[in-house]
Amino acid sequence: DGGITQSPKYLFRKExxxxxxxxxxxxxxxxMYWYRQDPGQGLRLIYYSQIVNDFQKGDIAEGYSVSREKxxxxxxxxxxxxxxxxxxxxxxxxxxxxxxxTEAFFGQGTRLTVV
Amino acid sequence: xxxVTQLDSQVPVFEEAPVELRCNYSSxxxxxxxxxxxxxxxxxxxxxKYLSGSTLVKGINGFEAEFNKSQTSFHLRKPSVHIxxxxxxxxxxxxxxxxxxxxxxxxxxxxxxx
Lengths: 115, 114
Known about the structure:
heterodimer, A: mainly beta, seven-stranded mixed β-sheet, globular, B: six-stranded mixed β-sheet, 12 strands
């Protein structure tokens, strides 16, 4: 079945450590996104990538980094510079290019807890 | 730029009652509109979308939404809710044409009581 796989589902890290969240899709989608979800704040865009080897900052990119070396993979690194990293992280993908660009498809999320 | 306002953070309702979750958007250009549902500790699932054409859009699980351009609204409705509809619902907008990103509202938590 086609879809988006995020791993792990739960992740615990000590403060000051970098951590990488995995996102893989087999939908052959061009664009991939990372969102952060906090209670009562909806989803906020961290980074997005329209094409391999290219990505842009979203609204809250500080303290995060990404790479897009393969079309199907878009890992997110939460660095020690992120001041409040505990959150639910969602990866998404979509077809790009009018008129096909419509909805985004989401993974099941990774809950990161920093202690 | 686009923005989305979900007017209710929480909506309690009894089982089998009708429900409306309200969403207003702001945009100076034409947009696509979406409703997503999120169950606890899961990702988002698309309920329905408005791209063009008929303003009444039907989605999964018996939900429907009506696009009202003059009022810049896209309210979600269901005539009779079930306990299993308890979840968080997100309204989202994106600009039509070309690349663009989804802009989400803050979410509405629907709590269905027996």
